[in-house]
Give the backbone structure.
Amino acid sequence: MSSLHRSAFFAAVAFTLAAGFYAVAQTKPAAPTVASARAFMNKAEADLLKLSTLGQRAEWVDETYINDDTDLLTAAENDRLIARTTELVDQAKAFASLDLPADIKRKILLLKLSLTLPAPHNAKLREELTQVASSLNASYGKGKYCPDGAAKPDACLGIDDLEERMAKSRDPKELADMWTGWRKVGAPMRDRYSRFVQLSNQGAREIGFADTGTLWRAGYDMTPEQFSAELERLWTQVEPLYKELHAYVRRRLIAKYGADAGRKDGMIPAHLLGNMWAQEWGNVYDIVAPPAAPATYDIGDILKERKTTARQVVEYGESFFRSLGFEKLPDTFWQRSMITRPADREVVCHASAWDVDFDQDVRLKLCIHGTTDDFITVHHELGHVYYYLQYRNLPFLFRNGANDGFHEAIGDSLALSITPEYLKQIGLIQTIPPASADLPILLRTALDKIAFLPFGLLIDKWRWEVFSGQVKPADYNKAWWALREKYQGIAPTVDRTEADFDPGAKYHIPANTPYARYFLARIYQFQFYRAMCRAAGYTGPLNRCSFYGSKAAGDKLKAMLAAGQSRPWPETLKLMTGEDRVDASAMVEYFQPLLTWLRQQNAEANEKTGWTVGADPMKAH
Ligand code: X8Z
Ligand code: ZN
């Protein structure tokens, strides 16, 4: 079949759709063939690459220089990209009855799943949606809490400042102030968010999904129902660990804060865990450390003592990847990344990694303050960057993580190798703590890794309920706190009402970033880590392994990253780990010594695990 024939076919399809579907077609399209499907896909990928790159550039400028113009330019680029993607999804249906080669079939599926923000065909409604999306993201980015009131704007704190202070403050009053103050950014988003949900759902329905949440859950090489069941299975595997940790931490917080921490129902007040969302608790390690624990190190304190620059923090991450055999980051990475908060403009500080041209123009955007969390986050973000670089030669639609949980797990699986031995090797500490520090160090890690699990699960449980219509706008906040209570055993610091919109104070809600990926990543990262430890020839207890410097581990990782999204993820997982299921056994193995210890501690203190779910989840006391 000649190429001329193929292009004539596409012109006809494009015309019929543009004119309002087949009924008004003036030329009858040629019957679809495998060759025309391939040509269609080639053109689709070329168009999407071009539009996506323009979209990324607009969005980069927007998020590093937020104002009304950059918001609108981003909305306009997203509008173009979504419109074209929607059109391609419609056109691809013409090939549904063909017996297509596996790669084209997979690309058609990925095309259909590619929109995190599906939007209506109607141009006016789509434009409204992309503008609401931009404005929600900008509202979060510009968010500030001004402790002394608006009179002193210099005293206003961005989320990066607040996170740093919440990590260190041990004054419950100050913590409660910051907690309440930051949540004021959420309230004004409520109406825009409900409109956002409505319009995005319409878009999802128009491309064949029940709602946007169902579209998100369809992205895992299984049905949305199977995916929900998988998450439940995983949660059942790890819930006992969380319950033990929760009970232990609760007791130690009560010992520290007294009545400020103690509640009859056994829940923990949300502001006392060293993190704005109580999602990771590692920053309160000093409060909950075993009484006889030897002094260990605080990476953030060391970095500050040494006056480590933001660039050097990123270089630590880069050199870990290089030790595994990965390439140097391109010069443009250093020239174009934003790694500290600029003084003169509004930016989105929430950390992100960018694949601007889906080739070598990779960047980071974050506001480094040199804390322990920053050190870990840099490894996390570079995981995204090295994924981008590794799959850049694949066809456009395969340039993605095996699934989004893989993307989130790569850097974290390296960060698990930040052991005392590793820190000594790179000269950040001089002496390795004694063996009696093993368990305390494991507790420190659990405070971040295990505490996160219920949080990672509930964010999208909330959003799926919102998108499906099970939760109505009038109950947004109540449903949010009901899940916080049920899964995390966390209670609000002060009474909440439906005048508040606390989901809006968590980045991924206004930014519309799906969140189940982070829950999955918490589990995958231990599978990846165990596989790389084995590849490195390590045979000791899992929690003491560092595969730093292992080319064998690096080769395994590279192979997985280079496969991108070209195959169903279980195949890619198998390539890496020999396992074809997501499974928490590596995580459980890693924390086994700690679980035994926590059970003992809770039993000795007569501490019952769990909490009582109340009638009104928005009530503080
Ligand atoms: O958003 C992130 C990354 C960017 S992909 C910094 N994370 C989640 C969060 O901060 O809520 C990493 C852990 C969970
Ligand atoms: Zn990430």
User: Anything to note?
Assistant: The chain has three domains: 46-140, 160-296+445-505, 299-434+516-581. Residues 1-25 have pLDDT under 50 and may be disordered. Residues 224-257 form the longest helix (34 residues). The beta strands are 268-269, 352-355, 362-365, 490-491.
